UniProtKB/TrEMBL annotation:
<dbReference type="InterPro" id="IPR036390">
    <property type="entry name" value="WH_DNA-bd_sf"/>
</dbReference>
<dbReference type="InterPro" id="IPR050950">
    <property type="entry name" value="HTH-type_LysR_regulators"/>
</dbReference>
<comment type="similarity">
    <text>Belongs to the LysR transcriptional regulatory family.</text>
</comment>
<keyword id="KW-0805">Transcription regulation</keyword>
<dbReference type="Pfam" id="PF00126">
    <property type="entry name" value="HTH_1"/>
</dbReference>
<dbReference type="GO" id="GO:0003700">
    <property type="term" value="F:DNA-binding transcription factor activity"/>
</dbReference>
<dbReference type="GO" id="GO:0005829">
    <property type="term" value="C:cytosol"/>
</dbReference>
<feature type="domain" description="HTH lysR-type">
    <location>
        <begin position="1"/>
        <end position="58"/>
    </location>
</feature>
<keyword id="KW-0238">DNA-binding</keyword>
<keyword id="KW-0804">Transcription</keyword>
<dbReference type="GO" id="GO:0003677">
    <property type="term" value="F:DNA binding"/>
</dbReference>
<protein>
    <submittedName>
        <fullName>Regulatory helix-turn-helix protein, lysR family</fullName>
    </submittedName>
</protein>
<dbReference type="InterPro" id="IPR036388">
    <property type="entry name" value="WH-like_DNA-bd_sf"/>
</dbReference>
<dbReference type="InterPro" id="IPR000847">
    <property type="entry name" value="LysR_HTH_N"/>
</dbReference>
Length: 88
């Protein structure tokens, strides 16, 4: 599991749509879909339910999102601390 995959996942959930998330992330929709599929394969659960209107988050996806949000907050704190010379 990579940090960028968590960012991608959160963006898909935010937009409820792979195409819109891919555009916001400045990557292609197939590349985004591939990374989400890799994340689902690694976690061995469906994180998103694909629908005609876009995507819906599954219960397992909600659990991952909660943790991913916290991880990304911590990563941001680390980056801020490193750049501002504060202690972590």
């Amino acid at each position: 599991m990579e940090i960028f995959q968590l960012r991608y996942f959160i963006m898909v959930v935010k937009f409820g749509n792979f195409t819109k998330a891919a555009k916001e992330l400045h990557i292609t929709q197939p590349a985004l879909s591939k990374q989400i599929k890799c994340l689902e394969e690694e976690t061995k659960v469906k994180l998103l339910k694909r629908t005609k209107r876009g995507v819906e988050i599954t219960e397992e996806g909600k659990q991952l999102k909660k943790h991913a949000d916290n991880i990304l907050i911590e990563v941001e704190k680390i980056n801020h601390a490193i750049h501002s010379k504060q202690t972590i």
